[in-house]
Amino acid sequence: MPDTQINPTAAALLGLLHEGPMTGGQLMAAAERRLGPYWSMTRSQVYRELPVLADMGFVRLGKPGPRSSQPYAITASGKRAFSRWLAEAPGRDALRNPVALRVAFGEQHSGGQLKELYTGASEYHAEAMAMAKEQAKEAKKNGDAYGSAALEFAVAYHKAALSWLKTAPSS
Questions:
Q1: pLDDT for 31-51, tens place per residue?
Q2: What's the burial of 56, exposed, middle or buried (CB within 10 Å: 0-12/13-18/19+)?
Q3: What are the Cα distances from residue 144, in Å, to 9, 110, 136?
Q4: Rounded to whole angstroms, how far apart are CA atoms 37 and 128?
């Protein structure tokens, strides 16, 4: 497989730009709305990647808007790079769960700390699962079977996390 020379964050931005030109702020909002339940991107990542994508010729800058906002549009070479990225093997998941890390050191916690950790994590996962379910339902209703399928991954992830939290040792 050819190397596209773009990382997953850059690829996600190119994918979002298929919808049309967007500023960095609009890309952040679109990423949060469409990808947030299963893929995180920070504002600094977005604003770091956009000039790199422009230097590579994968996006072009539009006319500056209010408050010097700069819209970006995907180019034909950007679409080709995105297609090459899609064809590459995705690599391994990078699993980093801050709750599981703390549970690994459970013997050093007090029982109260663990209970608080589990309660907070359970509340987060229940809320995130409900939001992802709603987003998946909306995507399906709008005919976006692929977006819905990706969101169902987020639902299953949060469901698995909730199930694990119920069985994690507390003392």
A1: 999 999 999 999 999 999 999
A2: middle
A3: 22, 46, 9
A4: 7
